[in-house]
């Protein structure tokens, strides 16, 4: 499934379709055009309830490297919600959509970050009342005896009401087979999706192949998650861009030689540990360690006095410790 949300109009006019296309291509919020028969006063009462909202969300999304298809999906959902508000205002039917999602990809590809942005957008658009994110894994859901799992899962769903329940490595719930308590967690989640319909959003995340297998274990699961998104591994250039962004937001700079050293390391690491490579998470660990190493180097070099501002900002090749200790 592509993960795209499609909006269809029952009208023979082409105008609503053109409106959506404009929204998808523009950073500005959609503008409702008024018919020539309407007065200026009437036009003034129909301003959009979320004017300027998507500009803020888009700015946050644009801060993420890559993920173009995810950004496109955000446009589509925003457009759908805006058009739904216009349809309600015009006295037309505007049925509730299901927004449960599956995020597939390796660690460090932005799944949790995107989930937080989704929660924020849905809260501001009125889909979610709170817009908070509850992040859990198997150990938080699965209990130690019969009935314990169902209670733990229900408690977490209750905490997530008004927001998003994000289950990382969700495929682990199906690893133990029919007799495993993970199945009880799945059954409880499915029931909650029915009983608390539209009160929370469930996002399941994990490795692509494992998530495909997990969804196949329960024939009713795939149809409950109409939005399925793939988070591909970052390219080397994208990882370097992420590294430069990380040091910049901390008021550091990477020397060109340090960038080259990091680039060669990332290329080697991706080739040697393709499935285990943690993408942006791996880069973040390197950057944080390099900042610690830079501090040690500066203290040993400047036993008396203080380094200059530029020296305090500079990460050099010797600060990049790339062994696996």
TrEMBL record:
InterPro entries linked: AAA+_ATPase (IPR003593), AAA_lid_6 (IPR041627), ATPase_AAA_core (IPR003959), CbxX/CfxQ (IPR000641), CbxX/CfxQ_RuBisCO_ESX (IPR050773), P-loop_NTPase (IPR027417)
Family from the record: Belongs to the CbxX/CfxQ family.
Region (Disordered): 1-20
Keywords carried by this UniProt record: ATP-binding, Nucleotide-binding
Source organism (scientific name): Paenibacillus faecis
Domain AAA+ ATPase: residue ranges: 97-235
Lineage of producing organism: Bacteria, Bacillati, Bacillota, Bacilli, Bacillales
GO molecular function annotation: ATP binding; ATP hydrolysis activity
SMART domains: AAA (SM00382)
Stored PANTHER family: AAA-TYPE ATPASE FAMILY PROTEIN / ANKYRIN REPEAT FAMILY PROTEIN (PTHR43392), AAA-TYPE ATPASE FAMILY PROTEIN _ ANKYRIN REPEAT FAMILY PROTEIN (PTHR43392:SF2)
Entry protein name: AAA family ATPase
Domain of life: Bacteria
């Amino acid at each position: 499934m592509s993960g795209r949300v499609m909006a269809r109009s029952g009208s023979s006019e082409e105008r609503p379709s053109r409106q959506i296309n404009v929204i998808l291509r523009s950073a500005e919020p959609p503008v409702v055009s008024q018919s020539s028969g309407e007065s200026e006063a009437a036009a003034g009462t129909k301003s959009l309830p979320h004017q300027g909202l998507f500009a803020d969300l888009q700015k946050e999304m644009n801060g993420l490297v890559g993920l173009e298809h995810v950004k496109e999906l955000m446009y589509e959902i925003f457009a759908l919600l805006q058009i739904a508000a216009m349809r309600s205002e015009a006295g037309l039917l505007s049925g509730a959509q299901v927004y449960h999602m599956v995020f597939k990809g390796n660690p460090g590809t932005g799944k949790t970050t995107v989930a937080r942005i989704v929660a924020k957008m849905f809260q501001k658009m009125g889909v979610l009342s709170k817009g908070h994110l509850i992040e859990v894994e198997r150990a938080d859901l699965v209990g130690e005896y019969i009935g314990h799992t169902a209670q733990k899962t229900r408690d977490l769903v209750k905490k997530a009401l008004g927001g998003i329940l994000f289950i990382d490595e969700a495929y682990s719930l199906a690893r133990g087979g029919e007799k495993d308590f993970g199945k009880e967690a799945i059954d409880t989640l499915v029931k909650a999706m029915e009983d608390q319909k539209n009160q929370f959003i469930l996002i399941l995340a994990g490795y692509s192949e494992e998530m495909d297998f997990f969804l196949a274990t329960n024939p009713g699961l795939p149809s409950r998650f109409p939005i399925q998104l793939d988070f591909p591994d970052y390219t080397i250039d994208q990882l370097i861009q992420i590294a430069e962004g990380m040091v910049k937001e901390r008021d550091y700079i990477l020397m060109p030689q340090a960038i080259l050293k990091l680039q060669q390391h990332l290329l080697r690491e991706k080739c040697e540990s393709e499935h285990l490579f943690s993408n942006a998470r791996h880069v973040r660990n390197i950057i944080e360690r390099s900042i610690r190493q830079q501090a040690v180097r500066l203290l040993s070099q400047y036993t008396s006095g203080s380094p200059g501002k530029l020296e305090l900002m500079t990460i050099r090749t010797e600060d990049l410790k790339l062994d696996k200790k």
